[in-house]
Amino acid sequence: MGIGNTLRLSSRMLHRRILYSSARSFTTTEGHRPTIVHKRSLDILHDPWFNKGTAFTMTERDRLDLRGLLPPSVMDSEQQIQRFMTDLKRLEEQARDGPSDPNALAKWRILNRLHDRNETMYYKVLIANIEEYAPIVYTPTVGLVCQNYSGLFRRPRGMYFSSEDRGEMMSMVYNWPAEQVDMIVVTDGSRILGLGDLGIHGIGISVGKLDLYVAAAGINPQRVLPVMIDVGTNNEKLLKDPLYLGLQQHRLENDEYIEVIDEFMEAVFTRWPHVIVQFEDFQSKWAFKLLQRYRSRYRMFNDDVQGTAGVAIAGLLGAVRAQGRPMLDFPKMKIVVAGAGSAGIGVLNTARKTMARMLGNTETAFESAQSQFWVVDAQGLITEGRDNIDPEALPFARKTKEMERQGLKEGASLVEVVREVKPDVLLGLSAVGGLFSKEVLEAMKGSTSTRPAIFAMSNPTKNAECTAQEAFSILGDNIIFASGSPFKNVDLGNGHVGHCNQGNNMYLFPGIGLGVLLSGTPIVSDGMLQAAAECLAAYMSEEEVLKGIIYPPISRIRDITKRIAAAVIKEAIEEDLVGGYREMDARELKKLNEEELMAYVENNMWSPEYPTLVYKDD
Ligand SMILES: NC(=O)c1ccc[n+]([C@@H]2O[C@H](COP(=O)([O-])OP(=O)(O)OC[C@H]3O[C@@H](n4cnc5c(N)ncnc54)[C@H](O)[C@@H]3O)[C@@H](O)[C@H]2O)c1
Ligand SMILES: O=C(O)C[C@H](O)C(=O)O
Ligand SMILES: [Mg+2]
User: How far is 578 from 585, CA to CA, in rounded Å?
Assistant: First the structure.
């Protein structure tokens, strides 16, 4: 069409064009008309017709009571699809360089989908097959899940409190639909297993821990709440990833950080005054501070510091018994610990206290206990000669002169320390995979123990300080071996089998939580943690321990958890801290004999059975 023709567009055509365009704009307006929904909160997220997932805008989240039920980052639909496609494509990569069980993530997805559609059935499957599926919903696969969380994120589970929610937490906590919450596991994502800062993706660890609370301790799944507190991340990869679901800012520090955690604690304890909060995978610089800040004010504990310590003590006492010696010989053990973070220091403090108690609890007993430990961190052996020593590690710093006599100096390497000390136990909580190298394990051959023990406790599997195969093949089947993530027993030929123990805080935290809940204690005391550890230590028979089996198999986790809960309640009674639980008041609780106490615990453990449902109009 020439210019002239264009100019001569008939008025009829022009009219038609205008009509067409106005019809289009009319259609568009129609498309923007709001959809009326008769639902709010999780009911919307669980409805495929209305759910937009992370694409709900902040105003919509506020309008529909969704605040806190989704990660804080708002995505558009293009970004959502990009995330979905990245995940889909990752399947191929995983088949190539995935974990030792190439189906682990696929199994996790299938279990997770079941979790989304039928909780009762999910927990029935999990409890009946706990040995097979704990490594899927818990370590090591949970680590992989967190690392791939952006792609795996489907239906949100739990609550997200971010630093953007300051001033709002007290009200948004009411967006959680359950009237009662018994157990919260909270993380800030700053140190997930040995995988470092995973930011908001760390929520997977809270979900995994609570799965064990339900499966092992029989906490009602309707009363658990996984929480992620997003104060930013220092993980540069996440900070640069446009599809990251969390706040793209560096972590808050100092008072700003504490104010966020304070507000969260106040909010959850205001709505649910009897809730128990388990702190999980906070970097050590905050783990200790927050524990001290809250432990006498709230029902809370730190699993990495306190749960790990109890499990390690139980294992160390097992290692003494495995030598055919009485537990009271524990204070004679020489222990080299690699790693002085939240877990390592937690273990050291408790081990020292246990030894000191065995030696009479005097000042000399404490000093004598202290001299049984050699601590090696990223900078080598910790001595008093170190500049800027971490105050938490200070009590375990060795005296320079004494070390000189032993042929060691500040910063000595792990292999040097093992060679000189010839320890009974080598315990790793360093998060460094392969730290117990061939050289280090060879040096352990010089151990003066009749049955040396190797505890490679870092998680997940790739961060273990050594594999079971490496330990047994170098040191033989006489050793005691425990690892944080599960390893299969090692066939050493000629009918010899190296037994692998799983030294993981999963043997303690569910029982601690359950005992605290059912006792109604307002705080989690050192005595309760000690009672829990002693219960675990005493659980294994003489015969098992002599075979090198120092922890129960995970198939017995529900039974051990029940006993630990009873031990915690007993201790709460001793300390006069019981408050009772539901219809069992403190006075009644104190009257229970051993058998009745066990029955009380058992009767209060949830089991996955379908209840009869009856409809009732509001
Ligand atoms: N098995 C369990 O139940 C259990 C429980 C808690 C933590 N963990 C594991 O323990 C590990 C550490 O956790 P954390 O919270 O203490 O971490 P953290 O980051 O606070 O501490 C790590 C420590 O290891 C030290 N370290 C680093 N490189 C080292 C090296 N080459 N040699 C010796 N030490 C070295 C660091 O200096 C630091 O002291 C993680 O892998 C975690 O999964 C296991
Ligand atoms: O989560 C685990 O498996 C144990 C422990 O809490 C850890 O941080 O590694
Ligand atoms: Mg942990």
Answer: 9
Mean pLDDT, residues 102-112 taken together: 89
- Determine whether the shortest distance from the Cβ of 485 to ligand 1 is under 6 A: no
The alpha carbons of the chain give a radius of gyration, in whole angstroms, of 28
Q: Do residues 281 and 460 touch, judged by C-beta distance below 8 A? A: no
Residue nearest to atom 3 of ligand 1 (CA): 504
Which of 430, 509, 551 has most ligand 1 atoms within 8 Å of its beta carbon, as the pocket-test mutant? 430
Task: Name the active-site residue from 122, 133, 138, 298.
Answer: 138
- Ligand 1 neighbour 432 (Cβ under 6 A): yes
Is 138 a catalytic site residue? yes
Residue 29 has pLDDT above 70, yes or no: no
Q: What is the pLDDT of residue 94?
A: 57
- Per domain, the residue ranges of the chain are 35-75, 153-298, 333-503, 507-604
Q: What topology does CATH give the domain 153-298?
A: Rossmann fold (3.40.50)
Asked if residue 140 has a cis previous peptide bond (ω within 30° of 0), the answer is yes
544 lines ligand 2 (CB under 6 A): no
- Quickly state the pLDDT bin for 3 (edges 50, 70, 90): very low
CA nearest ligand 1 atom 25, residue = 339
Choose between 157 and 102: higher pLDDT.
Answer: 157
pLDDT of residue 4: 41
* Alpha-carbon span 385 to 371, nearest angstrom: 16
User: What local confidence, expressed as pLDDT, does residue 356 receive?
Assistant: 95
* Ligand 2 atom index nearest CA of 485: 3
Mean pLDDT of 546-575: 97
Question: In the numeric block, which tokens belong to residue 158?
Answer: 């739990």
Q: 315 C-alpha to center of ligand 1: Å?
A: 18
Identify the pLDDT of residue 105: 87
On the question of a common fold for 153-298 and 333-503, the answer reads: yes
Cβ pair 242, 79 in contact under 8 A = yes
pLDDT of 10 strictly over 60: no
Q: Which residues surround ligand 3, an ion (CB under 5 A)?
A: 281, 304
Gap from CA of 99 to ligand 1 centroid (Å):
21
Spacing, Cα 85 to ligand 3 middle (Å): 31
* CATH number assigned to the domain with residue range 333-503, chosen from the 4 options 2.30.30.30, 3.40.50.720, 1.10.150.290, 3.30.470.30: 3.40.50.720
The answer to whether 281 is a known ligand-binding residue is yes
Nearest to 427 by CA among 469, 484, 477, 473: 484
Distances (CA, A) of 74 to 67, 286, 393, 583: 12, 28, 42, 45
Give the pLDDT confidence of 511-543 residue by residue, as tens digits. Answer: 999 999 999 999 999 999 999 999 999 999 999
State residue 21's pLDDT score. 38
Mutate to test the pocket of ligand 1, among 429, 440, 501 (most ligand atoms within 8 A of CB): 429
Average pLDDT score over residue span 406-435: 98
Distance CA 517, CA 506 (A): 17
What CATH topology corresponds to 35-75? Hemocyanin, N-terminal domain (1.20.1370)
